[in-house]
């Protein structure tokens, strides 16, 4: 059995489908009751309380570990989840980390994630680490304003990074969970092109067939919006990257293609699959 945490999110949902489609027994873990594919067991657990995950890990051979924003914050103890996995007899863990661990190692939340990566390496388990950059699905944060006002509001409108389709992350995660060849792999995952927020808005407008107005937020306005959902430290770390990406953050990684044998999906593909959210 494979346990998928964050199973109802943008990565966990397609990963759960992929594993179930491959004939694996899967336990999908989320904070709240949610629908899952046929044949998939669902478990409710809050990763802030590691002991609550123990029943889901009973009999598991592998764990996909995806942490919510509050578990990235300084003072959190997510390494206890690794200890629990070891104690439960799990043999393999795939950790969803962050590109910033390598590109911005001194950011507060990057230090926390680096410590978790180190705990995974030292656990004695088979492991793989995924380090994605910005997610294409972050554009879903614009869905309401596009539907109701035909507007996108975002900071740093003409500064781009190569965003990654969460479906690509999920497919790489499935490969790492199922194929021993990826044991010990650290994979940087991003998209095939650098794309700015203004260009993302234009791609959505083209798919909708209607114009979208772009409104550029100040950094302070963007942080105020982000901290409704994530800790202030994580908001600052993210804004540092998207305001002035360094050469490593602009580099198109070969790792998606190296694992999957194909190029990562462009942002326009993600939009085409998710356009209903913006109508």
Please specify the SSE layout and strand pairing.
Blueprint: E1 2-5, H1 12-21, E2 26-30, E3 41-44, H2 54-57, E4 62-65, H3 79-87, E5 92-96, H4 100-103, H5 108-121, E6 126-132, H6 143-149, E7 151-155, H7 166-178, E8 186-189, H8 197-208, E9 213-217, H9 219-226, H10 232-243, H11 247-250, H12 255-260, H13 267-274
Parallel strand pairs: 1-2, 1-4, 2-3, 4-5, 5-6, 6-8, 7-9
Annotation field: number of helices: 13
Helix content: 25-40%
Please provide the ordered H/E string of secondary-structure elements: EHEEHEHEHHEHEHEHEHHHHH
What's the total number of strands?
A: 9
What do these coordinates show?
- By secondary structure, this protein is of the alpha/beta class.
- 40% of the residues lie in helices and 15% in strands.
- Strands 3-2-1-4-5-6-8 form a 7-stranded parallel sheet, sandwiched between helices.
- The longest helix is centred in the middle third of the chain and has 14 residues, at 108-121.
């Amino acid at each position: 059995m494979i346990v998928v945490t964050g199973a109802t999110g943008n990565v966990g949902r397609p990963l759960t489908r992929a594993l179930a489609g491959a004939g694996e027994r899967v336990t999908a873990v989320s904070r709240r009751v949610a629908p899952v594919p046929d044949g998939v067991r669902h478990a409710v657990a809050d990763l802030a309380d590691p002991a609550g995950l123990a029943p889901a890990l009973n009999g598991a051979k592998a764990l996909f570990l995806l942490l919510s924003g509050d578990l990235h914050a300084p003072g959190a103890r997510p390494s206890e989840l690794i200890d629990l996995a070891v104690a439960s007899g799990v043999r393999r863990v795939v950790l969803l980390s962050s590109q910033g661990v390598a590109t911005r190692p001194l950011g507060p939340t990057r230090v926390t994630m680096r410590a978790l990566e180190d705990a995974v390496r030292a656990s004695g388990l088979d492991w793989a680490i995924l380090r994605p950059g910005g997610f294409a699905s972050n554009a879903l944060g614009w869905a309401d304003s596009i539907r109701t006002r035909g507007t996108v509001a975002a900071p740093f409108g003409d500064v781009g990074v190569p965003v990654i389709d969460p479906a690509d992350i999920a497919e790489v995660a499935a490969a790492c969970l199922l194929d021993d060849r990826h044991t010990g792999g650290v994979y940087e995952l991003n998209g095939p092109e650098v794309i700015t927020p203004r260009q993302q808005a234009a791609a959505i407008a083209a798919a909708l067939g209607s114009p979208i107005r772009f409104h550029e937020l100040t950094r302070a306005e963007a942080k105020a919006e982000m901290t409704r959902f994530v800790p202030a430290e994580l908001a600052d770390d993210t804004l540092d990257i998207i305001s002035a990406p360094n050469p490593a953050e602009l580099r198109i990684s070969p790792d998606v293609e190296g694992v999957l044998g194909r190029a990562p999906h462009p942002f326009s593909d993600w939009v085409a699959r998710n356009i209903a959210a913006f109508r």
